[in-house]
């Protein structure tokens, strides 16, 4: 039994399956694929008004430009001119008669080279009859409040009765900015026509199945004619969940029309102008509480800028309400969403999917109470945490609450109490000495519900092949966008067979192998696809065991999978040999696996159900320094303790937590979307839209996983989803900045910073609280 | 003909347009797809390559953005892409191995650019510290990792060392010899569009007299965007990034050739104006500082102008040359109004002269939404000479407050001849409101620009009044 002592072939901290290809530049992204001979290039022509009727389109100069093969408009769409992911028919591929936002695709140029197509696209002469436009949620509300999708109300108890009875009450308004995904690889589609009605798409989408359906509808062909392939994305973050549909449809239509491969890759500016972003919100909130700072009742209205079409705005604004409580019990509560239609690009999924815009309001409410009652915000947090058994505003009981332990551990390990006192002392000294640098500290928790709230998306498939040489090919419905999904699923399958990762090849995601997949989104990739892959592996394993029992006259208990071998009683057989034997005995060596998340259900009309299988938790403590002369800040230190259940790969999970923290911080600090009065997005490239740099991350950054945590539910290896939850840890930075700002008025007043807290907003808040600029004295 | 070395291959191009970019050449022309396009404007770093060039007979390698590096400007250079990197054993380079070991890649799209920037750092800095690493990475965006594992990888590779065995170290002499054998000038065209590389500055003067409407291209950190974003034709393009590289320091003045890059100028700043070192490291990212030139920053006439406010405060003059004729004028007089400078057709900025006479307090400040690699919303240069407690002279210039970089005349008046006191600076902070009528745009509102302009005077006082309170944010770790 010498093999018993072998180390397991898969170590948990195994690097990303593509890491060596990444660092050598040999990882192929869609734009790197070798093009078929005669490939053409498409480019989009974008609208130049925010809202208007197209009176005439003169595309003669476009057609006459060098290299141009074709110019396509809405009339050239052979099937349905729509990419609405919820079937609302409000999301044209190319604008048909009306344009609804500045930057909306109106026509497409097809040319021999991308540069020719791009140059030609600028030569269009389009006359519009301008129509009035509304750009932001409050203006939209004033203009009649047309909704892009129906709003939702979550209600439990009777807040209208409870609020007036509460000893203290605060009403406030909070403006929360949106965010561009800024995936490093822009949207891209390559369509290669086949025979009959067939077309193959290579693209960078999080949702190959949806692209398949959209392309089929646009072409007017059945879904079985369309194959969509995704090897990897250069980042997604939700921005490639639905937004890739349009690009793929344009490329596919042109490819079928000309029977040549067609590639469409927008320039970064066009990508940022023409594709949706995180929803920005204006939130009006009311909270009733007692003198000790316990929340008694909450009411709130979430007004969202949805853009011109539905896209995913319903689910996004729903999720904002699902997270309006964050980790806190609201005894009486009513929260309402108002998904407003605006003449801006249609906002879409983005890591957290509305959740962060709910969570941050809960944290604002905590701040309000803390400043009003003269307490540490952390004390107010702890006093209001859910206890197991309490109901959320959507009537799901919280059953896996671990925040008391998690917060206590973080508070201790980051030395919160001492450092908070040091911050207060520093600020007092600076106040006395006239020093401009102030400090702030905040420790904030997150509780995040895991599952698609559209219950039917919570299913997945996988396909595992073992070839006769013992090598394994693994395919599943999830897409690799950097999160390490393929690595984790390969680990699951490797562990199931007890073989090394070098034996397993995870292939590109393709609708040809696993059909009817859900988007790789909602942090669900590993939960769903890991279970499906395990199901497939277990089917093959069962057959191998059955075969070995028959072949060796053994019982199943006598068979064990040890590293790279199978032990049958006292005989140790190499894994490859077992496979060869099984093949010769005509055992099926491949299997399709399937998984559907149990227990969940949701009734939106009633606002009741169990939309989430479980919750993931985490907390962060951030300390900042703020320059009150300019509003600039640095993050001195951040400590994170995050719950991923039993981690399948702690290195990859930690990477998700670190990355999400910095991305969440960017959302709340330097990343500002700025539209001018004409509805033109003016921050549409990295020169004007500023995501964090290496030098913007915390100077000291301690990230730990809560190793003791284990998912109460029977998830894959009892792990928890990790993609989205830690995004909201960035709120600790936002609140720490507020804490530093509040010091200029001796913490008597909630700083009420709007997001993002750009240096400008910080300085203006400082001057508001101070009652004017810092004036030099003495001398 | 344009000639350069691409990895280990000599490239000879008889046809090229002035707007052809290195990135397109690599990806479309040579199938070298490891270098990525992320933004095509020099802000994300996904296209970072190393460009080596001869400097006083030796090779200098610097990371630059291939997206806005024109092919013509690669003449007589050694272009090194990610595909060329290798370790001493032919496997992963130590930087690459460290990136794998420390989980420095997630989606991987930015990764080749990071590897190239870190490689550039590794070659030039033994065992860099965290701040040096962050500074080297100001021009590289990553949206996945939060940078922490990348910095860890850079630290580990720095500690491991191994530069002496590195392939570029070993190849260096051979590469230098090959480049030295190539002619300095070049002249190519394609489809009627022409790119001219004058052999020397006198040649440049002649070329510009012949082609007074030519587009002068130095570091192309601005002109590059005319091409990649606005699709503007720039023919004939006259490429000068290899010219006017001299820096002369005398007792009275510092004379800087217009082709000196920010990176080449940095040692002069460190030695002679250490007060503004921080300010210089906030201009662009490393790749931009390796490409952008002091002359170009002046000649393009930006209303913000990262260096002009400081240079105006320092009393800089510039030398303009037309043919063999030269004229000298104070820098502030070069900027006439938004988009218009005092430069005649065929004339070019040849030299920037910074006086060194007299002792004074010097400072430069900038405000931007993000601290590094972000164009200023507002910037300012201060030169305040104090004699016997009285402000003998005050030169204060701002960028971002008007259509051109300009002096704050009323604020200067509020300072000059007054005692060096808080009250005087408070008066100047109030006076500067009357000097400018700034715009509101996506970088900042007019109100904020006014507020910060005033606070810059307050900061200047706090920094120079001898008080013991910290006035600026400290970017270093553990302090």
TrEMBL record, chain A:
Q: Coiled coil: which residue ranges? A: none
Q: Where is this region: Disordered?
A: 1-22
Any one Pfam family match given in the protein's UniProt record, by short name? MoCoBD_2
- Cofactor(s) it depends on: Mo-molybdopterin; Mo-molybdopterin cytosine dinucleotide; FAD; [2Fe-2S] cluster
Keywords for this entry? 2Fe-2S, Iron, Iron-sulfur, Metal-binding, Molybdenum, Oxidoreductase
Kindly give the NCBIfam families that the UniProt entry links to this protein: xanthine_xdhB
Quote the protein name from its UniProt record. Xanthine dehydrogenase molybdopterin binding subunit
Query: Upper lineage ranks?
Result: Bacteria, Pseudomonadati, Pseudomonadota, Alphaproteobacteria, Rhodobacterales
Question: Source gene?
Answer: xdhB
TrEMBL record, chain B:
Domain of life according to the entry: Bacteria
Q: Where is the 2Fe-2S ferredoxin-type domain?
A: 1-85
Q: What are the FAD-binding PCMH-type domain coordinates in residue numbering?
A: 188-359
Q: SMART domains from the entry?
A: CO_deh_flav_C (SM01092)
InterPro entries from the xrefs? 2Fe-2S-bd (IPR002888), 2Fe-2S-bd_dom_sf (IPR036884), 2Fe-2S_ferredoxin-like_sf (IPR036010), 2Fe-2S_ferredoxin-type (IPR001041), 2Fe2S_fd_BS (IPR006058), Ald_Oxase/xanthine_DH-like (IPR016208), Beta-grasp_dom_sf (IPR012675), CO_DH_flav_C (IPR005107)
Q: Which SUPFAM superfamilies match?
A: 2Fe-2S ferredoxin-like (SSF54292), CO dehydrogenase flavoprotein C-terminal domain-like (SSF55447), CO dehydrogenase ISP C-domain like (SSF47741), FAD-binding/transporter-associated domain-like (SSF56176)
UniProt entry keywords in alphabetical sequence: FAD, Flavoprotein, Iron, Metal-binding, Oxidoreductase
Keyword Flavoprotein (UniProt) = yes
Q: What is the protein name stated in its UniProt record?
A: Xanthine dehydrogenase small subunit
Task: Report the gene name.
Answer: xdhA
């Amino acid at each position: 039994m010498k093999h018993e002592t072998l180390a397991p072939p898969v170590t948990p901290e195994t690097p990303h399956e593509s890491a060596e290809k990444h660092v050598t530049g040999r990882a192929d992204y869609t734009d790197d694929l070798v093009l078929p001979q005669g490939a053409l290039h498409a480019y989009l022509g974008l609208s130049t008004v925010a809202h208007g009727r197209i009176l005439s389109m003169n595309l003669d100069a476009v057609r006459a430009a060098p290299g141009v093969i074709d110019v396509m408009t809405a009339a050239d769409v052979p099937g349905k001119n729509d990419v609405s992911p919820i079937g609302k028919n409000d999301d044209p591929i190319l604008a048909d008669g009306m344009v609804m936002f500045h930057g909306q695709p109106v026509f497409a140029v097809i040319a021999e080279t991308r540069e020719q197509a791009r140059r030609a696209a600028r030569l269009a002469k389009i006359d519009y009859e301008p129509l009035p436009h509304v750009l932001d949620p409050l203006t939209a509300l004033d203009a009649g409040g047309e909704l892009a999708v129906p709003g939702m109300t979550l209600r439990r108890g009777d807040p209208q009765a409870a609020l007036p009875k509460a000893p203290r009450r605060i009403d406030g308004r909070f403006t929360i900015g949106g965010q561009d995904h800024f995936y490093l690889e822009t949207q891209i589609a390559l369509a290669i026509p086949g025979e009959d009605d067939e077309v193959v798409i290579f693209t960078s989408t999080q949702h190959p199945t949806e692209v398949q359906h959209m392309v089929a509808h646009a072409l007017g062909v059945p879904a079985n004619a369309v194959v969509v392939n995704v090897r990897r994305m250069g980042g997604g973050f939700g921005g490639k969940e639905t937004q890739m549909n349009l690009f793929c449809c344009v490329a596919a239509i042109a490819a079928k029309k000309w029977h040549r491969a067609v590639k469409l890759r927008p320039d970064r500016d066009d990508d940022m102008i023409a594709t949706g972003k995180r929803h920005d919100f204006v939130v009006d909130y009311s909270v009733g509480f007692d003198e000790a700072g316990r929340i008694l009742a909450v009411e709130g209205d979430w007004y969202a800028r949805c853009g011109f079409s539905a896209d995913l705005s319903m689910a996004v604004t729903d999720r904002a309400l699902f997270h309006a409580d964050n980790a806190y019990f609201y005894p009486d509560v009513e929260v309402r969403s108002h998904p407003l239609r605006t003449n801006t690009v249609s906002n879409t999924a983005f890591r957290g999917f509305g959740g962060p815009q709910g969570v941050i309001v809960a944290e604002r409410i905590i701040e309000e109470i803390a400043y009003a009652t003269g307490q540490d915000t952390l004390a107010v947090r702890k006093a209001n945490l859910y206890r197991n058994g309490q109901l959320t505003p959507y009537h799901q009981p919280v059953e896996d609450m671990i925040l008391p332990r998690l917060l206590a551990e973080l508070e201790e390990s980051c030395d919160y109490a001492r450092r908070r006192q040091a911050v207060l002392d520093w600020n007092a000294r600076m106040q006395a000495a006239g020093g401009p640098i102030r400090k702030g500290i905040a420790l904030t928790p997150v509780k995040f519900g895991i599952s698609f709230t559209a219950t039917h998306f919570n299913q997945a498939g996988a396909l595992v092949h073992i070839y006769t040489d013992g090598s394994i090919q693994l395919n599943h419905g999830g897409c690799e966008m950097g999160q390490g999904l393929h690595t984790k699923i390969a680990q699951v399958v490797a562990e199931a067979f007890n073989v090394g990762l070098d034996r397993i090849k995870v292939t590109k995601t393709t609708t040809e192998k696993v059909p009817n997949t859900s988007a790789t989104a909602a942090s669900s990739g590993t939960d769903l696809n890991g279970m499906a892959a395990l199901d497939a592996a277990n089917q093959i394993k069962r057959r191998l065991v059955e075969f070995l029992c028959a072949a060796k006259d053994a019982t199943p208990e006598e068979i064990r999978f040890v590293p790279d071998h199978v032990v049958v009683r006292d005989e140790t057989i190499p894994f490859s040999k077992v496979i060869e034997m099984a093949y010769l005995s005509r055992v099926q060596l491949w299997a399709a696996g399937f998984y559907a998340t149990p227990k969940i259900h949701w009734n939106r009309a009633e606002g009741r159900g169990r939309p989430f299988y479980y919750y993931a938790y985490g907390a962060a403590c951030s300390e900042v320094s703020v320059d009150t002369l300019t509003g600039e800040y640095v993050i001195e230190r951040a400590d994170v303790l995050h719950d991923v259940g039993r981690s399948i790969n702690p290195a990859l999970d930690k990477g998700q937590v670190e990355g999400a923290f910095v991305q969440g911080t960017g959302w709340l600090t330097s990343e500002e979307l700025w539209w001018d009065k004409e509805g033109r997005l003016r921050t549409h490239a990295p020169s004007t839209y500023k995501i964090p740099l290496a030098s913007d991350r915390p100077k000291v950054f301690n990230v730990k996983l809560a190793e003791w945590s284990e998912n109460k539910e029977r998830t894959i290896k009892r792990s928890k989803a990790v993609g989205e939850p830690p995004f909201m840890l960035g709120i600790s930075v936002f609140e720490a900045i507020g804490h530093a700002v509040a010091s200029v008025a001796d913490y008597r007043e909630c700083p009420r910073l709007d997001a993002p807290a750009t240096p400008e907003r910080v300085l203006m808040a400082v001057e508001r609280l101070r009652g004017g600029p810092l004036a030099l004295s003495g001398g | 003909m344009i000639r350069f070395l691409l990895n280990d291959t000599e490239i000879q191009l008889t046809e090229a347009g002035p707007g052809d970019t290195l990135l397109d050449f690599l990806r479309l022309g040579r199938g070298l797809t490891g270098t990525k396009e992320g933004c095509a404007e020099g802000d994300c770093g996904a296209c970072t390559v190393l460009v080596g060039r001869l400097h006083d007979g030796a090779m200098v390698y610097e990371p630059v953005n291939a997206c806005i590096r024109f092919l013509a400007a690669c003449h007589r250079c050694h272009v090194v892409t990610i595909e060329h990197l290798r370790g001493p054993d032919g496997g992963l380079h130590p930087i690459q191995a460290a990136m794998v070991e420390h989980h420095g890649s997630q989606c991987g799209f930015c990764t080749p650019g990071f590897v190239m920037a870190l490689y550039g750092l590794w070659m030039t800095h033994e065992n860099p510290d965290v701040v040096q690493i962050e500074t080297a990475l100001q021009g590289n965006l990553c949206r996945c990792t939060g940078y922490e594992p990348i910095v860890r990888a850079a630290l580990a590779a720095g500690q491991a060392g191994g530069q002496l065995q590195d392939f570029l170290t070993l190849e260096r002499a051979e590469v230098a010899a090959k480049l030295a054998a190539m002619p300095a000038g070049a002249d190519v065209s394609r489809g009627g569009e022409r790119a001219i590389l004058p052999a020397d500055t006198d040649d440049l003067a002649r070329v510009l007299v012949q082609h007074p409407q030519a587009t002068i291209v130095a570091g192309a950190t601005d002109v590059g965007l005319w091409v990649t974003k606005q699709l503007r034709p720039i023919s004939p393009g006259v490429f000068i990034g290899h010219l006017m590289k001299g820096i002369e320091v005398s007792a009275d003045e510092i004379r800087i050739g217009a082709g000196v890059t920010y990176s080449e100028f940095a040692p002069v700043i460190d030695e002679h104006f250490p007060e503004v070192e921080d300010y210089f490291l906030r201009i662009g990212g490393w790749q931009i500082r390796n490409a952008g030139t002091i002359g170009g920053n002046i000649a393009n006439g930006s209303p913000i102008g990262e260096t002009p406010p400081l240079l105006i405060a320092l009393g800089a003059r510039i030398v303009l040359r037309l043919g063999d004729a030269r004229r000298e004028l104070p820098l502030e007089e070069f900027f006439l109004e938004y988009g218009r400078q005092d430069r005649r057709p065929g004339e070019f900025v040849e030299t920037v002269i910074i006086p060194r006479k007299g002792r004074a307090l010097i400072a430069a400040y900038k405000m931007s939404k993000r601290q590094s690699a972000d164009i200023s919303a507002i910037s300012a240069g201060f030169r305040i000479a104090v004699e016997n407690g009285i402000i003998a002279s005050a030169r204060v210039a701002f960028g971002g407050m008007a259509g051109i970089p300009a002096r704050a005349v009323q604020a200067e008046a509020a300072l000059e001849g007054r005692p060096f006191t808080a009250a005087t600076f408070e008066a100047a902070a109030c006076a500067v409101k009357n000097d400018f009528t700034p715009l509101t745009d996506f970088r900042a509102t007019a109100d904020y620009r006014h507020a910060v302009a005033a606070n810059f005077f307050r900061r200047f006082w706090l920094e120079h009044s001898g008080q013991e309170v910290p006035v600026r944010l400290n970017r270093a770790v553990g302090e």
